[in-house]
Specification:
With 236 residues, the protein is α/β, with parallel strands linked by helices. It is 46% helix and 14% strand. The strands form two sheets. Strands 2, 3, 4, 7 and 8 form a five-stranded parallel β-sheet that branches. It has a three-stranded parallel β-sheet with strand order 1-6-5, covered by helices on one side. Helix 6 (150-158) links the parallel strand 5 and strand 6. The radius of gyration is 18 Å and the shape is globular.
Length: 236
Amino acid sequence: MLVVLVLLLDLVVLGLLLPSLLIRFLLAPLHPQVLFCGRGPSKRLALTLDDGPSGPGSEALLELLEELQVPATFFLIGSHLERDPAFPLRALQQGHELGNHLWRDEPSAALEESSFHRQLRNTERRVERAAFPEPVTWRWCRPGQGWFHRRMLAWLAGRHYRLVLGSIFPWDTLKPPLWFVRWFVRCNAHPGGILVLHDTPALNARTCRTLQRIVPDLRRRGYTFVPLAELLDPGS
């Protein structure tokens, strides 16, 4: 009994502190249709930012990314464009990619098929109008709160989307100390890693401070940041 409890405790600790190992060697093989990370030995990372735009903080985030020379993929929530309607155009003009995070910040796995498609389409239309005259290429969808099911994968495949999650999630929505976020990213970084942070009114400033610290740190360790499309392209 004690051995079982120790093993369970080890799994909990591993899941909380080193989840990239579980994701890469357990979840990714079990769900090959889901993109958790890139492949290959090259020390490349992709930065993804969820839930934006956040309002005034999004402009500061774009400025920081330009200063750091880091490309990002913004998974936008359609209804959040009310906070900053011009954000998609500015992000595209700066060289970033856009992904679909549906219309509302809620668990997408709980949606019926018709509601799921409606949120997907409404977000597409809202972002495309805001991005005009820049074209938007829809490749990636990240479901709300990260939960998915097999039917969702089929729905997305029918619309030519791939479901993207990530392999480095430093629990930033829980607002841990910034030293923990930096330590977590350092410990979980790996070749092909997809880093998930957030662009919300409550988290934007923390995200900026996190990036100011971890980007130079990761570069000193030999990592480079590339667009998500480049990371996930098996021919690149």
